[in-house]
């Protein structure tokens, strides 16, 4: 106006946005935006690491919230909790670098995850990065994004500010925030502080991190011989492919190194390569046998059998076996029974004498008989499992809803193979007050 510059707008949009973003009372307990800054910051970090469709199809990024050590899952959206996990690889972002990393992560797995403990990959910030949710700069940016997204509906001036604070301020900083990842190596349920983890640098940023981790694990941390040992054990027991995959998703026991879980597709490919090498055979639904022919090159077998394995319920109908072993399941046509010969003439049946009267049972016998009758008429639900590790069997008990006071009958525990020392250790740990039967085959050297 004249020779003066005058601001015609009553207020500056960005100034108002930052003034509200710096007001802690709006986002603290009881404020109108309580907790929205934490939720937005976690969401922005998850997007920076795995927001593209290509990445999200294979990986699920879970950014844990402030109470990640005491109550990690209830702070997450319901769709991200363990009971809703699918076949994607789970990348769990820890919001701070723990002082005692291995003991803390071991306790986390024991307390907060009952199954699939070997599938998690922990993403970690640098040691000096501090706590994600105590970073003032990150919180201000997250609050600005949250407010701009709300206000743009009534004032279009906030739409470009939303984009600016997302793409130019917060996400670039978050892409570099996770420097390392941790993978379970040695599991100890009884003493989680004794757990051991492999801590590695992934050498990537942003949404390149998930695939960089996958490549590093496959090329540097995955030991083919360890995978083969587990697969051959399962094949020797006649297990299904589903049982093998479930076994691989749980930690190894007795201080053994865990086989890194690289996903179902990767594991099935390794199984097919063992089959192509002539080390195992696969029976598909009892209708088709996958195995290497005599003198057939492994490459030729691989080209012939790749893509043969199904998914879902098909895995439960795919049985593993060692070459030359008798099939464990189905496929053969039942042999009809021989024709029955003409029975000889039935001799006359002598008359049955009247029964001899017995004295009435004692009161104690009557009570025992009543208990047996009650047990006989009580419905029983059969539960069974293929050979699994003790940790996996504990998980089966949870799935079967077996409580400490549940009454169980006809318990049979089958062990495919063990040494005399392992058998002695097992017998010494069995509960007292219960009798056991024992049958075994002793190999003669």
Summarize the structure.
This protein is 37% helix and 9% strand.
Can you walk through the features of this model?
The protein has 14 helices and eight strands. The chain has helices at 13-21, 36-50, 53-56, 101-112, 136-151, 158-175, 209-221, 224-236, 241-248, 264-276, 298-305, 363-377, 390-399, 420-429; strands spanning 59-63, 89-93, 121-125, 178-186, 196-201, 281-284, 288-290, 318-321. Mean pLDDT is 86; it is low at 328-344. The termini are far apart. Strands 1-2-3-4-5 form a five-stranded mixed sheet. The chain has 445 residues and is an alpha/beta fold.
Topology, element by element:
Layout: H1 13-21, H2 36-50, H3 53-56, E1 59-63, E2 89-93, H4 101-112, E3 121-125, H5 136-151, H6 158-175, E4 178-186, E5 196-201, H7 209-221, H8 224-236, H9 241-248, H10 264-276, E6 281-284, E7 288-290, H11 298-305, E8 318-321, H12 363-377, H13 390-399, H14 420-429
Parallel strand pairs: 1-2, 2-3
Antiparallel strand pairs: 3-4, 4-5, 6-7, 6-8
Main attributes?
445 residues, alpha/beta, five-stranded mixed β-sheet, three-stranded antiparallel β-sheet, 14 helices, elongated
